[in-house]
Structure formats: structure tokens, C-alpha cells
Amino acid sequence: MALQKDNLWYKDAVIYQLHVRTFCDSNADGVGDFAGLTQRLDYLQDLGITAIWLLPFFPSPLRDDGYDIADYTSVHASYGSLEDFKAFLLAAHTRGMRIIIEMVLNHTSDQHPWFKEARSSRENPKRDWYVWSQTDLRYEGVPIIFVDTETSNWAWDPVSKSYYWHRFFSHQPDLNFDNPAVLEALWKIMCFWLDLGIDGFRFDAVPYLVEREGTPCENLPETHAIIRDLRKRLDLAYPGKMLLAEANNWPVNVRAYFGNGDEFHTAFHFPLMPRMFLSVKLEDRKPIIDIFDQTPEIPDNCQWCIFLRNHDELTLEMVTDIERDYMYDEYATDKTMRINRGIRRRLAPMMDNDRRRIELLNGLLMSMPGTPIVYYGDEIGMGDNIYLGDRNGVRTPMQWNGDVNAGFSTADPERLYSPVISNAVYGYQAINVESQIRSGHSILLWMKSLIKLRNSYQVFGRGSIQFLKPANHRVLAYVRQFGGETVLIVNNLSSSAQAVELDVRGFKGFIPIEMFGRNLFPRFGEVPYLLTLGPYQFYWFQLRRI
Amino acid sequence: MRQTILQGLEQAYGNLVHMIADFLPRFLVMLIIIVAGLLVAFLLKYILRIVLSVTKLDQVSEQAGASGILRAAHLPSMTALISRSIFWLTWIGFILLGLSVLGVASLQEQISRLFQFLPEVFVGILILIVGLMTANFLSRAALLAGVNAGHRSARIVSWSIRFLIWILTISMTLEELGVARQTVISAFSIIFGALMFGLAIAFGLGGQDLARKALEKYLGNTPQKEKDKEPQPL
Amino acid sequence: MAEDTILADDLIRQLISVGEVDLLVGISSQGNAIATSHTFRAIEQSFQQNFTRQRAVIVNVCRGDTEGSDASGAALGGSQENSAPLARSLRTVQRVTADFSVLPSPGLALRTVLTAADLLRARACAMVSPGTSDLTPDRIANLLTPVIRENFDFVAPLYSRHKFQGLLARNLLYPMSRALFCCGIRELYSDEWGFSGRLASACLSQDVWHEESIQTRPEAWMAISAISNDFRCCQAFLGQRLQTATGPGPDIVEVFRQTVGNLFWCMESRQSTWLDCRRSESVQTFGPEHELTSEQTDLDPHRIFEMFRNGVAELEPILSSILDPETHAEINSIVACKESSFRFRPDLWVRTLYDFAASYHHAVMNRDHLVQALVPLYRGMTYSFLTEHSDSSATEMEEASENLCAEFERQKPYLMEKWKAKIEVKS
Q1: Does residue C147 belong to the interface with chain B, where contact is any CB pair within 8 Å?
Q2: Most-buried pick from A177, B72, C341, C352 (CB within 10 A)?
Q3: What is the rounded (10 degree) CA torsion for C26, C31, C37, C43?
């Protein structure tokens, strides 16, 4: 199955996010690798995935799960070799799946040769590749991101006897983009991977590239200039490739990262994610409606990326204090679940393993405007381990079957990079791919049918959205339109059955066809259209005028 | 002659016996009817007392003010009055019925006329009762309203209302009974008309200010000052 | 037919859309669009500031073609979803409008609100008055908080008053209801109070909605129902009593009809409660127990005394059929006193009221007339109070109030005896 030639492929994609380390171990060393991942590509293809986003797999001290990169153009020995990666890439492309990798522009590991050189002396040519200061008073007032572990954005380097700037962990010094050599070096790195054939980059921590005194050192015009430069080069040399921005900010601020269609192709819609969880808990569509009211139009060749969970904590940066407190009280009653203004839990445990709620949230993910990203393991309802420290509780080994180590590895269990989940509810004996493939009504098979349905229609990835606002605030209803396709999505956010009357006069004469069962529903007319929904139930209707 | 006298006496005796023989059964029937009527009347009185006690007629009558009128007239309570009235009416009815059995022609005619007059008597009594109750109720209402509004002439107004309604009631009652109909109607019209005319002049010319104030109050334009002189109750 | 009109199809449809709620605030719009609009804003602000997580709804009972029903939609420019972004409330604040063809009476409005509370399983509810622009979010919170946080079932308001304001409540309604129903709620008659969903359901199930007393002043009946059925009652300090924006309010006779008449009716309908009740219990209060101010007023005590004296004289035959002969004689004797030395003793006042209550029960005359006949005597009591307490402090007035309450309780056996006695009827 060859890749479709379409420069806007990312609009129709269903992206699967995974870390190589977590997925499948082929050499019994307790760590997942590319060879093992390659063996599991059929599973992903069968699921309906069209793109895979790989978390950092580069050589690294692994003090920030690989985001502290020590070598940008190689593969960490634990995960295999560059050859393994090339084989994986080929196999993925053969199955029609594109590959997106990480590009950490903002910082490197303090073990990276660049930093080692830079710190060795103040006269070193690479000195200016990082941001140095004799005092820690520069850029005063800039917020600290990892509040649980860092007390300052400056760290003292005992080697060169000066401070260096780091927006993240202290072992991740920020690169200095005021030095053109930095950008050139990073572009070369990008070309290396593009030449191998990868299809896109996720730029980590984009807003923080540039620092200026008297600013919060985020989202500066200079940052956008850098992105435009990179995009221009990319379009010229590698058309059809995609750039994905990680900018945890309000939609109106993230909008700038699309530029005029000349910066990022895609960007995460961070604020939408917690509001989906909020809405389900509140049984009120208000949070979702509110955030969409604040979401500006984006250029036609751009796309939001939406998600439910990822490898980080469920961030509560982009919510109000009241909303944050509510989320903590409802979803993270145990303070161990909380980290860095977020919640480090997976989807299924947050939904109390309620199948209906899991389905509802995935239904929202697949039907709202944007490209959905599925975090590995959520398709089978994997659990988490909040006692593993940092955010490692949501990065446990993939559970393939009920055998030892959940089929992830044949190594001794003590050798695994992380223990498998083994409690009575989410343990690998209960939750695994094999059992769900064999069970006729598992979450996995349901997800597969959901993704398949989504992939059958371009309207989900490319269509507009118009909210219907019925009087019943527990129901979230919207219409997606693209070309000749019109779809009505109706979601019951509440734990009890609901009746709702929809004003569908604008679609008078259309016949709704329920998309999962392909059954006809009564035609839309002048009068409000009455629907009843069970707890957490949702409908996808294709509207046809026959 | 002795024979004739004896024959005459015999005949007279025979007639007397015949009369007595003819009258006695009717007399006995009359007595039976009267006694039976007495029993029925007692029974009705007893039943009515129970029924009226259960329906609390005395209380309703107290509320309406009728009991007050009865007490003032040294009459018994409404329940007693009605039950006794029914008792007497029933018994009188039976007595009249008994008397009619006697077959005395003139008596029968009078009884017949009496029965024809009875409905008018009832209606007349009813009009009187309703009228007196209405007079009582409305005059008391006017008195209370006037007193609570601080009007000095509340009692006069109350009595005037009571008097007017009495006049009207008595006129209607007499008219119903057919007593001097023309005289009553004329007299009522004259009195009532004169009263109204006098009130109109008194009120219209002499009471202009009062009229204006009353209208202002009715339309809600009473100066706030008046109401502020008394503390707000709630 | 009254059953049909309360739940019109449109109202049911609106309730379906709302679903279960935690908080419900009911208002009965009287056609004043500005005041109603302000009321909506105050309620929504209260929800946002004090109950951010609770599901809430506002139920507006009004006449269909008045400005009041328009105001409910126009208050915040239509749907709350069109309001400014990043609004503080987590949830949608729902609004429901119950339209009637005629201006609904207070009883009908309350019944509608209770029905909505019952159907929506509301936990905490409040009725507020839309007739003023002074309603604040804190007032509403003070009515709801004891219910939702402390599990109370009825929350009566407490006000800051001028010491000569509310004398009917101070000298009659409060002490009498306290003695009879053993519950020290000071303000039985007000336009704002809080209650629980439990109490709403219990009141709704009673078959009293056709009674005229309920139609005009249902709040006291609701409080007394709560007391009678062992629901938890409390009081919450709200500040100044709000003045209606639509004029000076009803006159004293109308007030008597609505309050004293209502109290007597409650005594009738709840005989078993107060006849068995022995000792009054104190009621928990949130905020200060009482607050009295004593600025200058424009009262005319002389006029009040004249109306009392004139009233007693003119109503002599009426009073004689209501009052006990001994009571009547004593009143006649104090009427004859000079104005400067006049005093309406508390024990006489209590006995008078109890005579009236018993006569009301025995229906010695039309009950509406009986209640009106009390007004001149109330004026006498008022005059006595004004002169006696012209220089009293708040503490002294409270002491006098407590003494009056004690007198009501002391003479309760007298009332019970008169209540149970049969009227002698001449036969």
C-alpha cells in the first residue's frame, strides 16, 4: 500500500503517538526497539492508523525521557540502529503509514557535544550556541515551566563559571537562536532525517526559542521568523512534509504559529483537551463551546491536532483556576496523581474504566475539527501507574497479551525499563491486545470501526463546524460540512438519558443516516427534531438530500 | 200527639245517631291524622336538628350575622328556629289535612286559600332573612373599612347602608306578600329617590374635597406623607 | 384545571432541557422589567461567585405578555453561551420561564416553583422578590448556603430594621407563632426565603393550594409546614429589608388580611401541631440575631392613638361578640385613659389576640371582618410601644420582645381552653 501523494495528507491522518521504548522489545533487553516496532506495524495498520508520531529515540542521558538529546542524527543504542530505523520507515511506508519524528529545537542535553564544547571555555566557537550570563538576573520574571523540580530558569555551570539559560530541566540548556549557526546546524539535522524519508517533524517547545529582555520570552516575533525560514526551506526542498508545533497556549496565540499558511502546517489545540474532560464531568457542553468561540480561523492549508492524552501530564495550564481546581478534585483526588499543574493519568483510569465514557471521548476526538492523535495503549484502555515518578506512569510497556511481561518482552521482568501494569482492573492479564482482538465487542475493535468510519469521510478532517445549541445543555451537537458531505454529530455528555430537540430548519429536507448502522432516521423538517440518547451515547448522522 | 212527639224524637235521635255515626269516623280519622302528623313533625324536627348540626349551620349563620339578629330578637338559634318551624309547619299541615277530612265546606275553602298563600309567605320570609343578613354584613364591612381608614363618619355610613337595605328589604317583602302593593312601591320610590337626591347634593356640593380625596386614594395617588405617619407593619 | 395550567407543555419542555439541578431560584415577575433584569443578573452573579460547581437554574414565573417575561431573555443578551469568553462559571446557568395568561398569584407562583424543584430534584432552592433593584448576590447566597452546605430545610430571612419598623411582626406575628408553633422564626412573612428540595416536595403534596390564604401569602404556611413536620429551620441575616420598587405597598388592612388572617388560618389547619407543642426551641441563625437602627422618623403617635380610641368606640358591638367580656371590659377601661398615661399591657394584648384567634376558630362572624376588627387594637398596641420605647436601646427592645414572647407562652393554656370550648347556642 503506497503512500497517497497529497500535500494535505495531514488533514486526513489519524496519528498514533508512541515511544519506541514502550512498544515492543525484540532482543529481550527489556526495552522496546525499532525491530520490535516494525513487527507490530500490521497491528497499527489494521487499527486504521495512517501516521505514527515517534517520541524521541535519539541518543540521550534519558533524564527527560529522551527530550534531552545528546546526538540528533543517530538512534539510541537501546532502540536499535539507524539501519533498524530505516527498515522500520520502509515497512511503515509500505503499509501506507507516514512517520513523524521529534525535533527538539529549543534545547539539547548538557551531554551534547555542542554544550560540552560551549562550556569548556568562554572563547570556544560554540560558546555562543547557548545563552549565557554572568548573573541570573537577566530575563527576570519569566515563568518557570517545571515548577515541581526547578527553582530558576538559570543554572550555574561550574565548568565555565557562568549561568546558562534553560526553560526546562537544568540539564537541558537552551540553544541561542540569535546565532545563525544554530539554525543552520538544526536545518542540516532536519535534512538528514528528511533525506531518509520521514514525513514530518514535531517541533518541541517552539514558543521558547528566542529570549528578549522585558518579555515573557515566549511567542516572540523572532521565533516566528525562524519558523518561516525553516518552512520556506522545507517547502522548497521537501514538499509534502509536515511541521507540527507544540505550543501550549491559547488558540489566539497559537494562531500566530500558522502564519499566513507559511509557518507550521499543524499545531496542537491544547486548551480543547482538558475541556473535553471538563464537559463530561460537568455534564455541560459549556467548556467546549467556550473554547471554540475563542478559536480563530486558520489558513486553509493548516490544521489543528487534537488529542485526549499524551506522554506528558494532562496539562491544566490553559484553564482558569476554578476549572483547574475542579479537574483536580474530580480526576486527581490523590495528590500523587498531580504534577506540574497537570494530571499524570491515562484515559481509561480517568474515566473510571467506564466503557461508555471512553467511547464518548474517542467519538469526540474523531469527530471534532482537527487531526486526531491516539496515544498508544488508549485504544485498548490501558491503565497507569502513578507511583512511578515524573510522568512515567503513563509510559508503561504496551500490553499485547496475557503472557509474562504482557508480551512486550521476553526479558526477565526485573529487567524491563518499567514494570508492566498488573493490578486487577488494568493489569495486562485483563487488558491486552490479544484478548481484545478475540473478543467481539472490545474497545479495540470498536476503536477500529470508529477509525475506519472516520477515514471513510474527508469531512471529519477537512470540514467546517457549526454548533447547534439546543436548550438541553447536556447535549453537544454540531454539523460538519465539506464539499458534498454533511455530518451531524450529537453527543450526550451526561450520565443519564436525555431528550433533545434540535433546530435543523437549515437542513430541512435532509435525511439523516446513522453512520454506524447505516439506518435511516426520519427526515428533517420545520419542527424541532426530537432525539433521545442513552447515557454518554452519541450519534453520527450523515445527512443526505435524496 | 204523643206518638208524633215520640216519632219526632225518635227521628231526631236517629238523625243524631246517624250524624254522629257519620261524623265520628271522620273525626277519628282527623284525630289519627293529627296524631300521625305530630309524630311525623317530631321526627322531622329531630332529623333536621341532626342534619343542621352536622352541617354547622349555626356557625355559618354566626359568620353571616344572622344569629346576631336572632339573638337581638330573642329568637332561638338558626338550627332550633328552622327545626321548630318545620315542626309546626308539618303539624299544621297535617292538622289542616285532618280538618279537610271532616268535610266542612267553608272550612275546606279557607284551608285551600291558606295553602295557596303559603309559598308567598315563604318567599317573603326568605327575602326578609336575606335582606337582613345582607344589611348586617355590608354595614359591618363599611364600618370596619371606615374605622380602619380613620374616617370619623364611619358609623353614620354604616347605619345608612344598613337602613337603606332594610327599607329595600321590607318593601320587597311587603310587595311579595301583596300587602298594600301600590302604596309600598310608591312610598319606597319616594323615600329612596329623595335620599339619593339628598346624598348627591350633599356629596357633590358639600363634599367636593372629600370626593377628590377619596378618588385620589382609590387611584393610588395618596400623598406618601399620610402613609408614613404610621410605622410599616412588616 | 389548575393542575393543567401549572405544567404547560412549554414549561415541561424547558424542564426537560434543564435536567437535574443542585440549585433553583424562583422569582415571580411583577411586570417591572428593569427590576427583573437586575434580579437575574444578581442571581447569576451569586451562582458564579459562590456556587461555581453547582448545576443551577432560575425559574421565572410571569404573565406571558409582560415585560417580565422579556426581561428573563434579555437580561444577559439572550443565551448565556453568547456572553464574554472565559466567564467564571463552570456551567451553563439555565433559565426557565413559566408563562401564565394572567399575573400569577404568589401561591400559584410558589406552586410552580415547587413543582419545578420537585421535577428537577433540586437540592437547594430560594424564592426572591424581583420587585426591587437592590438585590445583591450575597443575599441569594445567604439563603442557599444553609440548605446546600448545612442541610437545613427552611431558611427564613433576618433583617436590619429601624426599631419602629415591623411592629406587626415584632408584637404579633413573631411572638404568637413562636408560642404556638414552638419555633423562633422572626420573619414569617417576607418576599425571600430558602428551602430544600425535600421540603418543596412535602409542601407540594399537601392539598391546600386552592385556599385563599395560600394564594396571597404562602411563605408562612411553608415555614409552619416545615416546623410541623420536623424539617430543620434556620434564619439567615440578609441586611436591610428590600423595598418594592412599585409603590409604597399595601395598606395596613390588606397587610392584616394577608398576615394575621393567614396566621389564624394556619392555626386552623395545623391545630394538632400547636396544641401539642409545649416549649419553643431556638432556631440557628447565620449572621447577627438582630440589628436595630434608630434614626429619626416621621411618625405621628397622636394620630395612631386617636384611630385606636375611635376604632374601639365605633366597633363596640363587633368587639363584644369577639372578645371575652373581661378582656373587653379591660380594653374599654384603658381606652378611657389619657393619651399620656395610656399603656397597652402585654398580658392584655396577648389575651386580646387569643380571644380573636379563638373567635376566628369558632367563626363568630365573617372571618375577614374579624381580622379587620383587630386593626384598631393593633394601633393601640403600636402607640403604647412607640411611647414606651421612644428612647430604648436595641438591647432593651429585645428584652421587651422576649418578655412578650414569654407572655404568649404563659397564656397559651388560656387560648387552648377557649379554642376547645363549644359555643353555647340558645335553643
Answers
A1: no
A2: C352
A3: -20
One of A204, A313, A359, A378 is an active-site residue; which one? A204
pLDDT, average across residues B138-166: 88
pLDDT digits (tens, 9 = 90+) for A407-450: 999 999 999 999 999 999 999 999 999 999 999 999 999 999 99
Does C91 contact chain B (CB < 8 Å)?
Answer: no
Residue A83 is a catalytic residue: no
A113-165 CATH, one of 3.40.50.2300, 3.90.400.10, 2.30.40.10, 3.40.50.880: 3.90.400.10
Q: Which CATH architecture is the domain B118-218 placed in?
A: Orthogonal Bundle (1.10)
Which chain C residues contact residue B146 at CB under 8 A?
A: 314
ipTM (interface predicted TM): 0.79
Q: Is residue A538 within a helix (H) or strand (E), and if so which, with residue range?
A: strand A538-544
- What distance lies between CA A335 and its chain's CA centroid? 24
d(CA A425, CA A429): 9
CATH of domain A9-104+347-456: 3.20.20.80
pTM: 0.80
Nearest in space to C239 (alpha carbons), one of C131, C141, C106: C141
Contact assignment for A470 to C88 by CB distance below 8 Å: no
List, for residues A175-206, the tens digit of each pLDDT value: 999 999 999 999 999 999 999 999 999 999 99
Identify the residue whose cell numbers are 298594600: B180
Q: How far is CA B232 from CA A70, B25, B229, C192, C249, in A?
A: 84, 82, 9, 18, 10
Q: Give the number of other CB atoms < 10 A from CB of residue A365.
A: 23
Q: Scanning every residue of chain C, which has its alpha carbon at the shortest distance from the alpha carbon of A282?
A: C91
**Residue boundaries of the structural domains of chain C:** 2-293, 301-420
Q: Give domain C2-293's CATH number out of 3.90.550.10, 3.40.50.300, 3.30.70.420, 3.20.20.150.
A: 3.90.550.10
User: pLDDT tens, A355-405?
Assistant: 999 999 999 999 999 999 999 999 999 999 999 988 899 999 999 999 999
Q: Give the confidence band of B220 by pLDDT, cuts at 50, 70, 90.
A: low
Q: Which residue numbers in chain C have pLDDT < 50?
A: 1-4, 68, 70-86, 245-246, 424-427
Among A282, A320, A469, select the one facing C86 at the smallest CB separation.
Answer: A320
C neighbours by CB contacts (3+ pairs under 8 Å): A, B
Give C385 to chain B, closest Cα distance, Å: 11
Q: Measured between CB atoms, which of C13, C19, C79 is closest to A474?
A: C19
Look at B68 and C321 and tell me if their CB atoms are within 8 Å: yes
Q: Does domain A464-544 have CATH number 2.60.40.1180?
A: yes
